[in-house]
Amino acid sequence: MDDTLERIQAVRDAQGTQLLILTHHYQRMEIADLGDFTGDSFELARIAADRPDARVIVFCGVHFMAEAARLLAAPDQRVFMPDPQAGCPMADMIDRRDLEAAWARIHRVVGSEIVVPITYMNSSAETKAFCGERGGLVCTSSNAERSFRWALGQGDRVLFVPDEFLGRNSAAAVGVPEEAVAVYDPHTENGGLSDAEIRRAKVIVWKGFCHVHTWFTPAHVDAARAAHPGARVVVHPECPPPVVQAADAAGSTRFIVDFVRDAGPGAVVVVGTEINLVKRLARDFPDRTVLPLDLSLCPNMSRTTLEKLARVLETFPPTHEVLLPPEVVTHARVALQRMLALP
After folding, report:
1. Which of 145, 186, 199, 305 is the most buried (most CB within 10 A)?
2. CA pair distance 184, 18, nearest whole angstrom
3. Helix 275-284 and helix 253-263, axial crossing angle in degrees, nearest 10
4. Could you tell me which residues come within 8 angstroms of residue 137 by beta carbon, excluding any fewer than 6 positions away?
5. Which domains are assigned to the chain?
6. Burial class (CB in 10 A: 0-12, 13-18, 19+), 187
7. Predicted confidence (pLDDT) per residue in 47-74, tens digit
């Protein structure tokens, strides 16, 4: 490992400020520790946009995150991934063809009513572009509620993709009753919805999920409270609604980091999110007890290794560069800009 770290440091010394290494919170600890910045996907994409001196950006995360950095970075900046096969199963649960079919199906029922599409940041650039073209926007787990309020003020209904549970939790948070939320399943005829169910829905959510966060159950919360009386439980809003309701708090990755930081010395915090982040929080806050709600790992995040990072830094192979069609960039940026303009 020492030799690999020396190789990485040699490139950093040679490149100076022209090189920017961004690492997501869910990366292996040894990778996260090497980042010039560590954060959630949107934090890191914004940092890329704010560092015009960096000619090369190496994004240690999964593919949709590197795409977001590509969307917000300057045209003359280059974005690379240590492992371009590091994808996101949830982002892959939606594609353009299925999204266009859902859009057509909904509009056949609601006619000229305005449907505002929202896509979670955890989606492909092409999905973001689809929403940008149709008056919609991107959201993060931290601003999903604000995005819902904005969208419901702009139109009659919301189509939220691709995470069913972030959609359900956000709809509930802004006061949409459960009976006014419908789930569109692209793998069933007509999305699995009758015309009446579509007309009744104020919010239509895509049947997609993050396997890291759907692993957690209310039974995990009950077990944590039994084992650690007085502990606070914080989870990510990609968890199913019963888990969010059972927890003391739910919020974005940044929210979880801040929750642990603000808990204070001596506190016991049980965290329901990806295990690499939980382990790092436990290390970084040794004066409090930080425990995982259960062990849940994102294997795609773990695809990035020190050796892969060293290789991409030494050679910057074309196969590892993140490139997007100009028309996708144009419309996806519109969706991101609408998010940035949220009140």
Report:
1. 186
2. 45
3. 30
4. 118, 119, 131, 147, 150, 151, 335, 336, 338, 339, 342
5. 2-87+301-323 (3.40.50.10800), 91-209 (3.40.50.10800), 216-292 (3.40.50.10800)
6. exposed
7. 988 898 999 999 999 999 999 999 999 9
